[in-house]
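Data availability (excerpt). The following record was deposited with the supplementary files.
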Amino acid sequence: MEKTDAGTTVGVEDPYAYVDRCDHCTDDGRCRFAVERGDVDPEFADELSARDFRCPVVGDPQESGLAGPWEWGDCRHMRARNRDRKCARCGLEERRSAHTEDRPLLEEHHLSYAGDGNQSANAQQNGPSEPVDADGLTHEITIYLCRWCHAKVHDSWASIEDPASPDPEAIAAREARWSREHAELGFESAAERVNEDSELSDR
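Predicted structure:
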């Protein structure tokens, strides 16, 4: 099981299995980092400019799957922060409470941290060989976990790959928020209020 620098488990064997698309990759399969921040790593930008800035992992987005010659671990600037607002372990969906200070149901969970220098053996053969550590520009991979699964994973006994259902406390918290949300969205027209007042005065 992969661990953080502090020695706590991240709950997965392979963080890259949770990468769908690098945050820097545009819809047409080009690397935004190399285009907009090439001064940070000129060697990297020059290498990708020779490829028309096409992501060497994604390749041609018209092809199915990842058609490029690199793996996600080969690129020293890869970053993937999952935006899917549901727990990656049990599937619990977030319900935000507007205008309250309630703790969110979901919490961001790092599978890998920027600046850890992760590089695969394949990178040493086919891709950049040295990570860029000065600005922490290596790999950051995050997903969302409900706070109940988050605690279980960091307690080092639960895996994100485990088949899991939402914790009963998680379901109760979600339903309580749904009930408050439903009550806040309730609407009574002026005509309905007049009818109610009229019925009360006739009694």
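Summary of structural features: The longest helix spans residues 168-184.
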